[in-house]
């Protein structure tokens, strides 16, 4: 069955028989496609702004706790549909409605929201950007290589000069990627089918029920977060520190922390990811760290504090880095080879690479289905000139090359120039690979920039320069793949490429302001922000900082025997991935993912237990009623994530206002209780 059709068979032209199912575009045939200007409505951007704030809080919270961020496209599309549909119904009743709500407008909202909240990830607030701070430098025993503490002004300026380059770098390739190469872009395709289904009569009824389910679990999650707050008056207090499996297991990070967010994340993430995270937690905190801790005094000095990188903490961080790099490099070369192979077959089949914006051959269009003809026609109507893309890229690159050395003195103009020369090629590779596999390797490209630029600059300033270069590269390749996903969504919903590009630009602009403000609220509200055992430890900031140190100082930064373990886990990550690919899709789906396994190595497996509870709920639900689970599980999971995520806003405001919770609920061992009783008795 063709992915762009809903009926069986090849189907040429329209279906005349009542017995045959109509294609998607035949269902919408009677609806006029609005012009690209009419797709960009004021109400769409008002709703996008509100949802962008909500989703930025959610992504920021996930980024600052574990770094696992599920796709929120479905939630954005669903909530966008609900808000504007409610708006238009109210206007319709009062006879003030001038323009009906269309699927193209729905696509604009989804694009804008995802672009805006995406900056909360690519902005590096939980990784490279916060990794520059003095707080993380002290944790990494790296005071000598300098630091740059967060400030709202320079963060916003930095994001504005690096976040738009990726949009212009792949803009001329939209026809090649979407029409000529027919790349799948699974997330973009799934979002388009969802939006198309919302705007059919049957889909609208289901969407109402889905929104109702989302609202119920949103309310439950928000109120649960509010209830938990009352019991967090001191350190290690509250339900988030509940020793579910006993005090000993709790000390090794094995406990259920009653997080609605990660139960929801577990319902959205594939089963194998949740199992992989749990396996990684058992391997590290259940076996390796207790065994290495017994070597205290031999492998590392016994008197070191827990956060010292030359002690147990160093093993946790650097072994996790080794697994992340092994997994990232394997997938980089895998996707890169698939990109080159795909390009070779495309060029060989067409004898020449197709030119962007070139009209479709009439002979080819005759062989296309009705849906494909309609979509191709609309997609090619509103062209964006090549000169606009080139001029936009060159202009922003020049401004960025001038501004960035003033923000980061160790990052020179020629470093930035080299990045911008290679960036369009890497952005294309990431966008093409994402179209094939649905994997954006933005963080992998960022890590390559850390090592390349950090080693180039050297010991004097190489750490900060490497982290800044990581930010430049991540933003370029991340926004490039996001834009191409949105073009695919727009192609399948008949949204104009111009409206897609403009909504992406407006969403990115919103994100460059909203995300730093949300981060600043977290940073100022919580005094222990970024500390290992705090509510928001930002664990990947330490990881990225130590990658930069490794790139500058080499292996001298590692504790005793750590290098051998790193070699072993680096090789294991590659071997696991290779075995997974060799086994094929059926059996390979049971092989764990090294990247997911590496996440709890540093931060602990407590969130993995929450995610596995989410998986268990979904598994039982699917066994009882698979149809209902498929329809409502994403909405329920989104409600759990959104409610708990939004609670962080009032909790941050309460913390800034100095309002303290009234109760501390804490669990102590029998031995500790005895000591307390003795002390009180004396």
From TrEMBL:
What the entry lists under Pfam families is as follows:
OPT
Q: Do the record's keywords include Membrane?
A: yes
Q: Where in the cell is it found?
A: Membrane
- Residue ranges, annotated region (Disordered): 1-24
Q: Which UniProt keywords apply?
A: Membrane, Transmembrane, Transmembrane helix, Transport
Membrane topology type: Multi-pass membrane protein
Organism domain of life: Eukaryota
Q: What is this protein called?
A: Metal-nicotianamine transporter YSL7
Natural source organism:
Hibiscus sabdariffa
Classification from the root reads:
Eukaryota, Viridiplantae, Streptophyta, Embryophyta, Tracheophyta
Query: According to its UniProt record, where is this protein mainly located?
Result: membrane
Report which residue ranges the record marks as coiled coil: none
Q: Where are the transmembrane segments?
A: 40-62, 68-87, 108-131, 151-173, 312-333, 384-407, 413-432, 463-480, 501-523, 562-579, 599-621
Q: Which family does it belong to?
A: Belongs to the YSL (TC 2.A.67.2) family.
Q: Which InterPro entries match?
A: OPT, YSL-like
């Amino acid at each position: 069955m063709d992915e762009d059709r809903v009926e069986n068979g090849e189907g040429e032209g329209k279906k005349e028989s009542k017995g045959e199912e109509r294609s998607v575009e035949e269902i919408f045939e009677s609806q006029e496609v609005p012009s690209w200007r009419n797709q960009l409505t004021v109400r769409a951007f008002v709703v996008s702004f509100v949802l962008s704030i909500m989703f930025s809080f959610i992504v920021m919270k996930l980024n600052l706790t574990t770094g696992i961020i599920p796709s929120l496209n479905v939630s954005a599309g669903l909530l966008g549909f609900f808000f504007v549909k409610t708006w238009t119904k109210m206007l319709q009743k009062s006879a003030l409605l001038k323009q009906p709500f269309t699927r193209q407008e729905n696509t604009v909202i989804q694009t804008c929201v995802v672009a805006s909240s995406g900056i909360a990830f690519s902005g590096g607030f939980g990784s490279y950007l916060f990794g520059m701070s003095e707080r993380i430098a002290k944790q990494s025993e790296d005071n000598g290589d300098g630091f740059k503490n967060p400030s709202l002004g320079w963060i916003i300026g930095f994001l504005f000069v690096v976040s738009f380059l990726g949009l212009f770098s792949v803009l001329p390739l939209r026809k090649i990627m979407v029409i000529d190469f027919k790349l799948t872009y699974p997330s973009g395709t799934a979002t388009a089918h969802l939006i198309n289904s919302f705007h059919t009569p049957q889909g609208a009824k289901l969407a109402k029920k889905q929104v109702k389910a989302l609202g119920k679990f949103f309310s439950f999650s928000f109120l649960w977060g509010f209830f938990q707050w009352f019991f967090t008056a001191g350190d290690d207090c509250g339900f988030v520190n509940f020793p579910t499996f006993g005090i000993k297991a709790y000390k090794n990070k094995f406990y259920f922390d009653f997080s609605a967010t990660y139960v929801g994340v577990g319902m959205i993430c594939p089963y194998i990811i949740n199992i992989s995270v749990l396996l990684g937690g058992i391997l590290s905190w259940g076996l390796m760290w207790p065994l290495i801790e017994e070597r205290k005094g031999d492998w590392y000095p016994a008197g070191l504090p827990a956060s010292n990188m030359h002690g147990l903490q160093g093993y946790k961080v650097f072994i996790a880095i080794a697994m992340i790099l092994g997994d990232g490099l394997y997938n980089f070369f895998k996707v890169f080879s698939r990109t080159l192979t795909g390009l070779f077959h495309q060029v060989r089949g067409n004898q020449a690479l197709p030119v962007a914006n070139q009209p479709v051959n009439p002979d080819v269009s005759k062989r296309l289905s009705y849906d494909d003809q309609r979509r191709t026609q609309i997609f090619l109507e509103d062209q964006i000139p090549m000169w606009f893309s080139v001029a936009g890229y060159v202009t922003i690159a020049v401004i960025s090359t001038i501004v960035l050395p003033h923000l980061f003195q160790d990052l020179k103009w020629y470093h930035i120039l080299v990045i911008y020369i290679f960036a369009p090629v890497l952005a294309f590779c990431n966008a093409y690979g994402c179209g094939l596999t649905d994997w954006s390797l933005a963080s992998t490209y960022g890590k390559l920039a850390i090592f390349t630029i950090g080693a180039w600059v050297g010991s004097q300033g190489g750490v900060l320069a490497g982290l800044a270069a990581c930010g430049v590269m991540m933003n370029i390749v991340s926004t490039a793949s996001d834009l191409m996903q949105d073009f695919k969504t727009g192609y399948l919903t008949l949204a104009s490429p111009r409206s897609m590009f403009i909504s992406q630009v407006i969403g990115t602009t919103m994100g460059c302001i909203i995300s730093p403000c949300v981060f600043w609220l977290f940073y100022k509200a919580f005094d222990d922000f970024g500390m290992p055992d705090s509510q928001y430890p930002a664990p990947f900031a330490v990881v990225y900082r130590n990658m930069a140190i490794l790139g500058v100082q080499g292996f001298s930064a590692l504790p005793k025997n750590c290098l051998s373990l790193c070699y072993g886990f680096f090789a294991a990550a590659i071997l696991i991935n290779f075995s997974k690919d060799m086994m094929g899709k059926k059996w390979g789906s049971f092989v764990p993912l090294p990247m997911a396994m590496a996440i709890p190595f540093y931060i602990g497996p407590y969130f993995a237990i929450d995610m596995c509870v989410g998986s268990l709920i979904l598994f039982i639900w699917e066994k009882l009623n698979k149809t209902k689970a498929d329809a409502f599980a994403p909405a329920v999971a989104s409600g759990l994530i959104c409610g708990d995520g939004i609670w962080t806003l009032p909790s941050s405001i309460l913390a800034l206002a100095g309002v303290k919770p009234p109760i501390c609920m804490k669990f102590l061992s029998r031995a500790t209780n005895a000591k307390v009783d003795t002390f009180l008795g004396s």
